Amino acid sequence: MRLVLLGPPGAGKGTQAAAISKRYGIPHISTGGMLREAIAAGTPMGLTARTIVEAGNLVPDDVMAGMVRERLSAADTARGFLLDGYPRNLGQAVTLESILGGLGWKLDHVLYLAFGDAEIVRRLSGRRTCGGCGAPYHVENAPPRREGTCDSCGASLVQRADDAEDVVKRRLKVYGELTEPLVEFYRRRGLLREIDAAGSVAEVERRCVAALSGATSPVVSGSST
Ligand code: AP5
Q1: Is the pLDDT of residue 222 over 50?
Q2: How far is CA 97 from CA 90, 104, 148, 169, 183, in A?
């Protein structure tokens, strides 16, 4: 299963990616998560990326291409992967096809989490992220068992710098101009599975699984069932 998860900021990509990756036993590759790790570690790439990410803009395509190419070459992607946050513009989509082609692979599905702008600011302003493992929480919709502490690894929860209201507005603008055209790009390739991302986390997960099961149910040649 080689998947891309597409959708606006706050649509629930990270939340659903965690569940899908566990269900299908494939690694969740979050380019936003990888950038945040590099920023926290203070690597040269992290230092360059920091101001760009915190302003809500896109990190240059060549930096992202190198990062994704290296990650997809790791051994754990042999059974598949779930890319969350990449590609983010048409140039990156073409680069991804080339990276996958070089590995002898193709994408199987693109899950598109469709979500209206009005709810996005509410979801993002209430989001808290684990400073240790990156797991997403929400103060109302998905609170941790112990306030301020990650259920999985026990690290403290933090608010992302790019969840400030003016930066969220910038991220939405960038999404509309550069990333949304990918919906049509993948629809034309017959890869798009559109999911209504409104509703509870469990409801959206059921829709994702149904879309993937429908899309992957085996076709038995000559069968009348
Ligand atoms: P990235 O980390 O990819 O951010 P994003 O795409 O803006 O998405 P988010 O992480 O904000 O939201 P999400 O859809 O994952 O929602 P979540 O599940 O957390 O990228 C960050 C930055 O890195 C970019 O702006 C850019 O600068 C840079 N970058 C990354 N990739 C790049 C690339 N390829 N090229 C260039 N630059 C790149 O959910 C949000 C909240 O809602 C949470 O609190 C969650 O608990 C809650 N929630 C989720 N689902 C539900 C539900 N069904 N009901 C109620 N609450 C819910």
Answers
A1: no
A2: 11, 10, 40, 30, 15
Q: Computed over its alpha carbons, how large is the radius of gyration of the chain?
A: 17
Which two three-digit tokens encode residue 220? 């038995």
Q: Residue 169 and residue 154: Cα distance in Å, rounded?
A: 31
Scanning the structure block, which residue is given the tokens 């469990």?
202
Mean pLDDT across 182-196:
97
Under DSSP, the state recorded for 4 is E
- For ligand 1, atom 43, which residue shows the shortest CA distance? 127
Long-range contacts from 54-60, C-beta under 8 angstroms, 24+ separation: 54/161, 54/162, 54/167, 55/167, 55/170, 56/162, 56/167, 56/168, 56/169, 56/170, 56/171, 56/174, 57/170, 57/174, 58/88, 58/89, 58/174, 58/178, 59/35
Instruction: Tell me if residue 171 is catalytic.
Output: yes
Query: How does residue 72 score in pLDDT terms, banded at 50, 70 and 90?
Result: very high
Question: What separation in Å is there between the alpha carbon of 215 and the centre of ligand 1?
Answer: 25
Ligand 1 centroid from CA 221, angstroms:
41
Q: Is 160 a catalytic residue?
A: yes
Residues lining ligand 1, CB < 6 A? 7, 9-15, 31-32, 35, 52-53, 56-59, 64, 85-86, 88, 92, 123-124, 126-127, 136-138, 141-142, 162, 171, 199-201, 204
What digits encode the pLDDT tens for the residues 191-206?
999 999 999 999 999 9
Tell me the mean pLDDT in the region 55-64.
97
Provide the token pair at 91. 């140039």
Predicted pLDDT of residue 176: 96
